[in-house]
Amino acid sequence: MSGAVRRQLPLFESAAAPTPWETLDERDRGTRFVALPVRSVLNPPSATGMGFWSVNPYIGCEFGCTYCYARDTHRYAVERAHDEGRLDDEAFQEFRGPGGWEAFERRILVKRDAPAVLARTLEPARLAGYSLVIGTATDPYQPAERRFRLTRGILEVLLAHRGLTIGIITKSPLVTRDIDVLARLSERNSVSVHVSLATADARLARRLEPRTPVPSARLRALQRLRQAGIRAGILIAPILPGINDDVNGLSALLAEARARDAQYAVGSSLRLGPAARNRFLPFLDSEFPVIAARYRRHYASSTMASPAYRRALHGRLERLQREHGFDVDEGMREEREWRQGVTAGDVQVKLL
How many of the other CB atoms lie within 10 Å of CB of 78? Predict the structure, then answer.
């Protein structure tokens, strides 16, 4: 990663004397939580390449999904800490793990001052009409949130503001813990929760993402959010060629979501960066060997599915959404609200 790109990503702030990372807790199964000092938690669109501002209270994720693109964010954070002297050579190797990917799910960086920093630095005018999305590179309701309560703290800070467009992306039913805050926040702001689901098939989900809550638990959380009057829908992500992009599987998921009163459904195909590739491709070799070689050939030269595939998938999703009573325009409106300043063509590429 070039120096220019590093300067754009505000994961760490420079300090006169970098201090080693402080371990906050370590679980029996080997997951360690490490304090990450920050001066800013807001990531602008110009730094992330996304058409919205983002906040991620953690770096790394205990859910450890095999395909997660955010593995590259964790790798970068660890490399930069090593460069700045926060990690010595031995600790650096330990944080990377023997395969180079394990630390993403076993070494969780905790921005424990995130709510206070956000309260001090958030100026709504600075957002310039862009949305603020929580959980673009981590799950804000991963198990660590039960202890550290950073996501709830961030939502409580946002209660002081009005007129914001706020989004949350999560796979976790823990989001329902904060229904009280989300309801109050919705009175003065536009709030929506994307419940992330790759499939409604529990067996397939267990193969793809064995450490995440089962699909039925996420669907119940969606229903509870809607019953509380919270705007919520599903994010079908990632859609994996030859694995969960079939008509029957997508149709079953949309039917389940509609039965829980989901207001919209949007989808996203696989994005595979270098760190994610190191985890996901060996997984395919083991679990889906028949198609693993095709993935290797395509993703050797690209991080995204081909334009032709994305167009075909877009058409399939639109047709299935209409069949299940979804307003396709509602899903696209949701994406447009989040991605201010991105052209319609870019939205389709980002979405599918």
Answer: 25
Q: What is the mean pLDDT of the chain?
A: 85
pLDDT in tens, 3-12: 433 333 233 3
Mind giving me the DSSP string for 100-140?
Answer: SSTHHHHEEEE-TTHHHHHHHH--GGGGTT--EEE-SSS-T
275, amino acid identity: A
Of 11, 72, 70, residue with least CA distance to 42: 11
> pLDDT tens across 295-305, in order?
999 888 889 98
Phi-psi region of 241 (alpha: psi -120 to 50; beta: other; left: phi over 0): beta
Distance CA 52, CA 127 (A): 9
Which residue intervals of the chain are DSSP H helices? 3-8, 45-48, 71-83, 89-96, 103-106, 114-121, 144-148, 150-158, 179-186, 202-208, 215-227, 247-259, 274-287, 289-299, 307-323, 328-338, 344-351
Nearest to 335 by CA among 318, 321, 348, 319: 348
66 vs 132: CA distance, rounded Å: 26
Interval 38-81: pLDDT, tens: 889 999 998 877 889 999 999 999 999 999 988 888 888 888 88
Please state the pTM of the whole predicted model. 0.86
- Give 227-270 pLDDT, tens digit per residue: 999 999 999 999 999 999 999 999 999 999 999 999 999 998 99
**Sheet hosting strand 107-110, strand order edge to edge:** 22-26, 32-35, 107-110, 58-59
Beta-strand relationship, 107-110 and 58-59? antiparallel
Which of 205, 264, 256 is CA-nearest to residue 234?
A: 264
Residues 325, 251 contacting (CB under 8 angstroms): no
**Bridge pairing between strands 132-134 and 165-170:** parallel
Contacts of 240 (CB under 8 A, 6+ apart): 67, 198, 208, 269, 270
